[in-house]
Design brief:
globular; alpha/beta; about 550 residues; seven-stranded mixed sheet; 20 helices
């Protein structure tokens, strides 16, 4: 059964949604210089789609050019009609078509299908066993403030804001929600993912709305923000990745995009103005944590590319190869709790923590009514500059939650240790020059590596006890030798080359420093102590 919450609470009239988004955008922008805004839209889209042979894109461009041809002599009323024509096109493209029956079927079948994929058994054995006993619960581990999340969906509107490392994130989040009996959530998905008709059908009916990241002009972004705010006002629980795209470097995201984040505050204020029942909006930070990331090689190369030349949308990474995805998932299944999902403490739109009753709390833990931030004498006061400050506070609080709730694995710690040792080989070199050092400079004795590992582990365990980072079970109890053996084996499992290799003679080679850097970067922004001097003497 689908939990009747969020977008599953009501029947959705798609025409009504598209009409509402169009009306709201045109009304809000009606006092702007519409001719300039429309001209910018046509200019940027012509530049982006120059030379296209795709019939759909050609028809879209023809529509935009026709709009431009009427701008010179258009009255304000005419401009609003032209604006409506363009915005309606965008609203129809963005809007998803959630269907509760499709969602119910998918949540019954997909976990079993994934479990079949993850089972390392002969196909005929699976057929004879049927679907009994198939589970992902021992491979995707959920923890954190799940009970609070469960209560808040009944008290207001919840926005789930996860970290973003891999194309695997969306199914992992979907499984975690289903596993914990949490309601469906709408989420923005790259329009490039809708090119496969079968995948497109399921995504379109499971709560996904389309985001075309190639459209960089202001009018399209306004339509996206309006859709997000409208959805929150209708109490459709939502998910978006505040980092915007997958972390290219592997670092925990701390510089977050605030456009969609600000729609939570806008929706809360509109709910107060309208006197809606359950007006509160809550943000739940979530960390998605992997030992290994399939796309790591491509992502880190893109991160290290010359500034200005990295690709915003990568369409040819490892996830474009189905055989690689299947191989990766199967190998990950062989590891103990290979994915850990942590639901962080909820926040209000101003960045304050929220308790299980949905009350905002001040730094002393006292509850208070957050409407005082935006109301005077019971009336909501509009103030865009004030709202930007509040949204910045929220972004900062989410970034801090990401760091605090980041779950570190053996692969991250070992890779960080190897790069700390590499930095000592030639202390005067910057990162890019260090990555070019020859193999003779990338060989370290096992004894030195274990000493540095133990040094870093002690610091991480102190941070864990202080609540500023999370360690997986192996890092909590394992010795440096245990962690070294595990990490070397894991780092050689799924990538085309091994990041680190034990040479069998008492030395370890940092074979692929770029790939190791991707995993090492997961410990960036944490106050680790200086490395031990060469020789491992403190």
């Amino acid at each position: 059964m689908v939990r009747k919450e969020g977008i599953a609470r009501e029947r959705i009239d798609d025409r009504e949604v598209i009409s509402a988004i169009t009306h709201r955008v045109v009304t809000r922008l009606s006092h702007d210089e519409l001719d300039i805004l429309l001209n910018e839209t046509v200019f940027m889209e012509e530049k982006r789609l120059r030379g296209t042979k795709d019939p759909e894109s050609s028809a879209y461009l023809a529509m935009l050019r026709d709009v431009r041809s009427h701008l010179a002599r258009a009255s304000q009323r005419d401009l609003e009609v032209l604006m409506r024509r363009v915005v309606e096109t965008y609203a129809a493209e963005i809007h998803g078509h959630f269907d509760a029956k499709t969602y119910a079927s998918a949540t019954r079948v997909l976990p079993k299908g994934l479990a079949l994929l993850l089972k390392r058994q002969k196909p005929w054995k699976l057929l004879t066993q049927g679907m009994r006993g198939l589970t992902l619960s021992d491979r995707i581990i959920s923890s954190g403030h799940i009970d609070t999340f469960d209560r808040l969906v009944e008290r207001g509107t919840v926005v789930l804001v996860p970290t973003h490392l891999s194309n695997l994130d969306s199914p992992v989040v979907g499984f975690a929600l289903h596993q914990n009996n949490l309601p469906p959530m709408i989420y923005g998905a790259g329009i490039n993912l809708f090119t496969n008709w079968l995948l497109s059908y399921f995504m379109d009916h499971l709560g996904a709305y389309k985001v075309d990241r190639a459209k960089q002009h202001g009018l399209y972004k306004e339509c996206l923000k309006e859709y997000s705010q409208y959805a929150l006002e209708r109490r459709w629980h939502s998910l978006f990745f505040p980092g915007g795209t997958r972390s290219r470097s592997g670092r925990v995201e701390t510089k977050l995009k605030k456009g969609l984040m600000g729609t939570g505050l806008a929706a809360y204020q509109e709910n107060l103005r309208s006197g809606r029942e359950h007006p509160r909006v809550y943000f739940v930070p979530m960390t998605i944590n992997y030992r290994l990331v399939l796309e790591a090689e491509t992502l880190v190369e893109d991160s290290l590319a010359e500034e200005g030349k990295s690709r915003y949308i990568i369409t040819d990474d490892e996830f474009s190869r189905p055989d690689k995805v299947i191989s990766f998932v199967r190998k990950m299944a062989a590891m103990d709790s290979s994915v850990e999902v942590f639901f962080g403490q909820p926040l209000d739109p101003f960045g304050n923590p929220v308790n299980a009753d949905g009350d905002s709390m001040d730094p002393q833990g006292r509850t208070f009514d957050p409407s005082g931030y935006v109301c005077r004498d019971g009336e909501v006061i509009a103030d865009s500059q004030r709202d930007r400050i509040y949204t910045n506070r929220l972004a900062g609080a989410i970034g801090q939650a990401f760091l605090k709730d980041n779950v570190v694995f053996e692969t991250h710690v070992f890779a960080a240790v190897m790069h700390r040792m590499l930095a000592q080989v030639r202390p005067g070199l910057d990162l890019y020059r260090r990555l070019l050092l020859g193999p003779e400079d990338r060989v370290f004795s096992t004894q030195e590596v274990d000493a540095e590992l133990d040094h870093v582990l002690k610091a991480l365990r102190v941070m864990r006890d202080a609540g500023t980072i999370r360690l997986n079970r192996a890092l909590t109890t394992g010795t440096a030798t245990d962690i070294r053996h595990a990490a070397i084996g894991q780092l050689g499992m799924v990538h085309s080359v091994a990041a680190v290799r034990d040479r069998g003679d008492g030395t370890i080679l940092l074979e692929e420093p770029k790939l190791a850097l991707y995993y090492a970067n997961r410990l960036e922004n944490y106050p680790l102590p200086p490395p031990l001097p060469r020789g491992g003497v403190a």
